[in-house]
Automatic annotation (TrEMBL):
It comes from the Eukaryota. The chain crosses the membrane at residues 12-31, 51-69, 81-99, 119-141, 153-175, 195-216. It is found in: Membrane. It is a multi-pass membrane protein. This is ascorbate ferrireductase (transmembrane). The lineage of its organism: Eukaryota, Viridiplantae, Streptophyta, Embryophyta, Tracheophyta.
Length: 232
């Protein structure tokens, strides 16, 4: 059911949107919110690490990992390794990013896990971890039998896309929540910071949309190797 268009131009759009999303998050965090810190008396600097690490990790590196089969000009085995490593970095940054939100809450006496965003966030990071472990065991080491691998691939792809869509959706909830907090403590509703945050959320969302478009379009033609599946 792949779309009859080549994935290559779509993957360029993904890269461009990824760089834009990262620049926008950095401008927001550094110029408007005062930058980053691991230890500080101003605890909001610890919080600022949260959106930055989540967007860089789960969203951008996670998205680049997903499209690596479509965007890279290498052999399948090499692309598999890049896919696995980028997802591992994304997962690690996601875990540290969530830790910074907890750290900020604990050091400011705010309750943990009270919001829809935080509940979905715990679901996303748990599913992402499970997906990575299953992917590793079935497709990399010790590797399942050929029958198990070919039966697992459609599940791996569909569940991988599902957890990724949930991550992108949850990031937009996070932007909305943070901006709502800021607006209730004085940030103007139609001011430049509010526009910047909403545009950052839109670019993040578009990045996710183009990741999905890339996955369901035509990848480079390659020789059949093990672990192949015809694109959904
Ligand atoms: C996939 C991306 C994301 C995931 C998985 C995620 C996950 C989480 C989790 C688990 C918490 C709870 C921390 C606690 O209870 O102590 C949290 C808090 C928070 N996050 Fe995110 N987050 C993501 C992206 C973002 C983004 C992009 C923003 C934008 C600013 C954001 C804003 C917030 C805010 C304001 C809080 C504190 C309030 C609350 O607990 O809901 N998050 N996040
Ligand atoms: C949380 C981590 C992971 C997520 C979200 C994920 C997601 C995905 C997605 C969406 C695809 C479809 C790509 C496409 O058709 O263009 C895919 C393909 C694939 N993934 Fe993963 N993956 C993860 C981890 C892993 C790991 C650790 C391995 C181990 C090697 C792996 C092996 C594969 C293989 C073999 C394919 C099939 C590629 C093809 O035949 O075109 N994945 N993955």
């Amino acid at each position: 059911m792949a779309l009859g268009v080549s994935a290559t131009p779509l993957t360029f759009v993904v890269h461009a949107l990824g760089v834009s999303a990262l620049v926008l998050v950095l401008v927001w965090s550094i110029y408007f919110r005062g930058g980053f810190a691991w230890e500080a008396t101003d605890k909001s600097l610890i919080f600022n690490l949260h959106p930055f690490l989540m967007v860089l990790g789960l969203i951008i590196l996670g998205g680049e990992a997903i499209i690596s089969y479509k965007s890279l000009p290498f052999r399948k085995e090499v692309k598999k390794l890049v896919h696995l490593i980028l997802h591992a970095i994304a997962l690690a940054l996601g875990i540290v990013g969530i830790y910074t939100a907890f750290k900020n809450h604990n050091e400011t006496g705010v309750a943990n896990l009270y919001s829809l965003h935080s509940w979905i966030g715990i679901g996303v990071i748990s599913l992402y971890g499970i997906q990575w472990i299953f992917g590793f065991l079935v497709f990399f080491y010790p590797k399942g039998s050929p029958a198990l691998r070919s039966e697992s691939i459609p599940w791996h792809v569909v569940l991988g896309l599902l957890v990724y869509v949930l991550a992108v959706g949850n990031a937009t909830l996070g932007y909305l929540e943070k901006l709502t907090f800021l607006e209730s403590s004085g940030v103007e509703k139609f001011g430049s910071e509010a526009f910047l945050v909403n545009f950052t959320a839109l670019v993040t969302l578009l990045f996710g949309v183009f990741v999905i478009f890339s996955v369901i379009s035509q990848g480079p033609v390659e020789e059949e190797e093990d672990d192949s599946y015809s694109s959904i």
